[in-house]
Amino acid sequence: MLGERILVIGSPGSGKSTFARALGELTDLPLLYLDLLFWNADRTTVENQVFDQRLEQAMAQSQRWIMDGNYSRTLDRRLARCQRVFFLDYPVEVCLEGVRARRGTVRPDIPWVETEEDPEFMDYIRTFPQQQRPKILALQEEHPEKNWVVFRFREQADAYLQGLREGKAGKA
Protein backbone atom coordinates (compact mmCIF):
# COMPACT_ATOMS: atom_id res chain seq x y z
CA MET A 1 0.00 0.00 0.00
CA LEU A 2 1.35 3.42 -0.96
CA GLY A 3 -0.30 5.44 1.77
CA GLU A 4 -2.76 8.24 1.49
CA ARG A 5 -0.29 11.13 2.04
CA ILE A 6 2.85 11.15 -0.08
CA LEU A 7 5.75 13.57 -0.48
CA VAL A 8 7.79 13.78 -3.69
CA ILE A 9 11.10 15.57 -3.12
CA GLY A 10 14.41 16.06 -4.94
CA SER A 11 16.47 18.61 -6.77
CA PRO A 12 14.79 21.03 -9.15
CA GLY A 13 14.80 19.43 -12.59
CA SER A 14 14.65 15.89 -11.21
CA GLY A 15 11.11 15.43 -12.46
CA LYS A 16 9.22 15.67 -9.17
CA SER A 17 6.12 17.16 -10.78
CA THR A 18 6.13 14.69 -13.67
CA PHE A 19 6.51 11.76 -11.28
CA ALA A 20 3.83 13.17 -8.94
CA ARG A 21 1.38 13.60 -11.84
CA ALA A 22 1.93 10.03 -13.03
CA LEU A 23 1.59 8.71 -9.47
CA GLY A 24 -1.58 10.76 -9.02
CA GLU A 25 -3.11 9.30 -12.16
CA LEU A 26 -2.36 5.78 -10.95
CA THR A 27 -3.57 6.28 -7.37
CA ASP A 28 -6.35 8.85 -7.81
CA LEU A 29 -4.73 10.91 -5.04
CA PRO A 30 -5.06 14.70 -5.42
CA LEU A 31 -1.90 16.68 -6.20
CA LEU A 32 -0.61 19.62 -4.18
CA TYR A 33 2.10 21.59 -5.97
CA LEU A 34 4.05 23.66 -3.46
CA ASP A 35 5.30 25.96 -6.23
CA LEU A 36 1.70 27.06 -6.81
CA LEU A 37 1.42 27.98 -3.13
CA PHE A 38 4.70 29.94 -3.14
CA TRP A 39 4.98 31.66 -6.54
CA ASN A 40 2.80 34.34 -8.10
CA ALA A 41 2.26 34.48 -11.85
CA ASP A 42 4.56 37.53 -12.08
CA ARG A 43 7.48 35.44 -10.70
CA THR A 44 7.35 37.06 -7.28
CA THR A 45 6.95 34.97 -4.16
CA VAL A 46 4.57 35.20 -1.26
CA GLU A 47 5.79 35.88 2.27
CA ASN A 48 6.58 32.86 4.45
CA GLN A 49 3.50 33.51 6.59
CA VAL A 50 1.23 33.42 3.52
CA PHE A 51 2.93 30.28 2.21
CA ASP A 52 2.56 28.61 5.62
CA GLN A 53 -1.15 29.47 5.74
CA ARG A 54 -1.67 28.11 2.22
CA LEU A 55 0.25 24.96 3.08
CA GLU A 56 -1.76 24.34 6.24
CA GLN A 57 -5.03 24.93 4.36
CA ALA A 58 -3.99 22.56 1.58
CA MET A 59 -3.02 19.80 4.02
CA ALA A 60 -6.18 20.27 6.08
CA GLN A 61 -8.47 20.31 3.04
CA SER A 62 -7.92 16.64 2.34
CA GLN A 63 -6.61 13.62 4.23
CA ARG A 64 -5.32 12.22 0.94
CA TRP A 65 -2.66 13.88 -1.23
CA ILE A 66 0.57 13.77 -3.15
CA MET A 67 2.69 16.81 -2.35
CA ASP A 68 5.34 17.87 -4.85
CA GLY A 69 8.22 20.08 -3.75
CA ASN A 70 11.11 20.49 -1.33
CA TYR A 71 10.74 23.78 0.55
CA SER A 72 13.08 22.53 3.26
CA ARG A 73 11.86 25.10 5.79
CA THR A 74 8.54 23.21 5.96
CA LEU A 75 9.76 19.68 5.31
CA ASP A 76 9.61 18.60 8.97
CA ARG A 77 5.98 19.73 9.22
CA ARG A 78 5.04 17.88 6.04
CA LEU A 79 6.96 14.76 7.05
CA ALA A 80 4.94 14.64 10.25
CA ARG A 81 1.77 14.25 8.18
CA CYS A 82 2.89 11.98 5.36
CA GLN A 83 3.19 8.21 5.20
CA ARG A 84 5.58 7.79 2.27
CA VAL A 85 8.38 9.83 0.71
CA PHE A 86 9.72 9.48 -2.80
CA PHE A 87 13.17 11.07 -3.05
CA LEU A 88 14.38 11.59 -6.62
CA ASP A 89 18.10 11.58 -5.87
CA TYR A 90 19.48 12.07 -9.39
CA PRO A 91 22.86 13.25 -10.66
CA VAL A 92 23.28 17.00 -11.12
CA GLU A 93 23.60 16.79 -14.92
CA VAL A 94 20.28 14.93 -15.15
CA CYS A 95 18.58 17.69 -13.15
CA LEU A 96 20.21 20.51 -15.15
CA GLU A 97 19.08 18.85 -18.37
CA GLY A 98 15.58 18.42 -16.90
CA VAL A 99 15.34 22.18 -16.38
CA ARG A 100 16.68 22.91 -19.86
CA ALA A 101 14.26 20.45 -21.46
CA ARG A 102 11.18 22.00 -19.85
CA ARG A 103 11.99 25.56 -20.92
CA GLY A 104 9.15 27.05 -22.95
CA THR A 105 6.64 24.49 -21.72
CA VAL A 106 3.33 25.35 -20.04
CA ARG A 107 3.23 23.33 -16.83
CA PRO A 108 0.42 22.74 -14.32
CA ASP A 109 2.83 22.98 -11.37
CA ILE A 110 4.13 26.53 -11.85
CA PRO A 111 2.21 29.73 -12.70
CA TRP A 112 4.44 30.92 -15.57
CA VAL A 113 6.48 29.59 -18.49
CA GLU A 114 10.24 29.42 -18.04
CA THR A 115 11.71 31.10 -21.10
CA GLU A 116 15.36 31.60 -20.25
CA GLU A 117 18.04 30.10 -18.06
CA ASP A 118 18.26 31.54 -14.55
CA PRO A 119 21.95 31.32 -13.52
CA GLU A 120 21.15 31.52 -9.79
CA PHE A 121 18.63 28.67 -10.11
CA MET A 122 21.11 26.55 -12.08
CA ASP A 123 23.74 27.17 -9.38
CA TYR A 124 21.23 26.02 -6.75
CA ILE A 125 20.87 22.75 -8.69
CA ARG A 126 24.65 22.39 -9.00
CA THR A 127 25.09 22.77 -5.23
CA PHE A 128 22.02 20.69 -4.28
CA PRO A 129 24.12 17.55 -3.54
CA GLN A 130 26.30 19.46 -1.08
CA GLN A 131 23.73 21.87 0.38
CA GLN A 132 20.30 20.17 0.39
CA ARG A 133 20.87 16.43 -0.05
CA PRO A 134 22.60 15.99 3.36
CA LYS A 135 19.59 17.60 5.07
CA ILE A 136 17.22 15.21 3.29
CA LEU A 137 19.37 12.20 4.18
CA ALA A 138 19.42 13.32 7.84
CA LEU A 139 15.63 13.54 7.82
CA GLN A 140 15.47 10.07 6.28
CA GLU A 141 17.49 8.75 9.22
CA GLU A 142 15.28 10.62 11.71
CA HIS A 143 12.04 9.37 10.12
CA PRO A 144 12.54 5.77 8.95
CA GLU A 145 8.87 5.08 9.73
CA LYS A 146 7.83 7.20 6.74
CA ASN A 147 8.51 4.47 4.16
CA TRP A 148 11.14 6.17 2.01
CA VAL A 149 11.66 5.22 -1.63
CA VAL A 150 14.86 6.61 -3.14
CA PHE A 151 15.43 6.58 -6.89
CA ARG A 152 18.95 7.32 -8.13
CA PHE A 153 18.06 7.23 -11.84
CA ARG A 154 14.96 8.15 -13.88
CA GLU A 155 14.78 4.58 -15.11
CA GLN A 156 14.12 3.38 -11.56
CA ALA A 157 11.21 5.79 -11.14
CA ASP A 158 9.86 4.85 -14.57
CA ALA A 159 10.07 1.13 -13.71
CA TYR A 160 8.26 1.76 -10.41
CA LEU A 161 5.43 3.58 -12.19
CA GLN A 162 5.26 0.85 -14.83
CA GLY A 163 4.92 -1.72 -12.06
CA LEU A 164 2.01 0.23 -10.62
CA ARG A 165 0.41 0.45 -14.07
CA GLU A 166 0.72 -3.29 -14.57
CA GLY A 167 -0.64 -3.98 -11.11
CA LYS A 168 -3.58 -1.66 -11.73
CA ALA A 169 -4.24 -3.25 -15.13
CA GLY A 170 -4.12 -6.69 -13.49
CA LYS A 171 -6.90 -5.64 -11.11
CA ALA A 172 -9.19 -4.27 -13.83
What does this structure look like?
This protein is α/β, with parallel strands linked by helices and 172 residues long. It is 52% helix and 13% strand. It is built from eight helices and five strands. It has helices spanning 16-27, 34-38, 48-61, 75-81, 92-102, 119-131, 133-142, 154-171; strands at 5-10, 31-33, 65-68, 84-88, 148-151. Strands 2-3-1-4-5 form a five-stranded parallel sheet, with helices on both faces. α1 packs parallel to α8 (154-171) and α5 runs antiparallel to α6. It starts with a strand and ends with a helix.
Question: Brief description of this entry?
Answer:
The protein is α/β, with parallel strands linked by helices and 172 residues long. The chain has 8 helices and 5 strands, in the order βαβααβαβαααβα. 52% of the residues lie in helices and 13% in strands.
Shape: globular
Uncertain parts: none
Residues in helices, as a percent range: 40-55%
Mean pLDDT, rounded to whole units? 93
Total beta strand runs = 5
Number of helices: 8
SSE order in H/E notation? EHEHHEHEHHHEH
Structural class: alpha/beta
Distance between the termini: 17 Å
InterPro entries: Cytidylate_Kinase-2, P-loop_NTPase
Keywords: Kinase, Transferase
Protein name: Adenylate kinase
Organism: Candidatus Acutalibacter pullicola
Spell out the blueprint of helices and strands:
Blueprint: E1 5-10, H1 16-27, E2 31-33, H2 34-38, H3 48-61, E3 65-68, H4 75-81, E4 84-88, H5 92-102, H6 119-131, H7 133-142, E5 148-151, H8 154-171
Parallel strand pairs: 1-3, 1-4, 2-3, 4-5
Helix pairs in contact: 1-8, 5-6
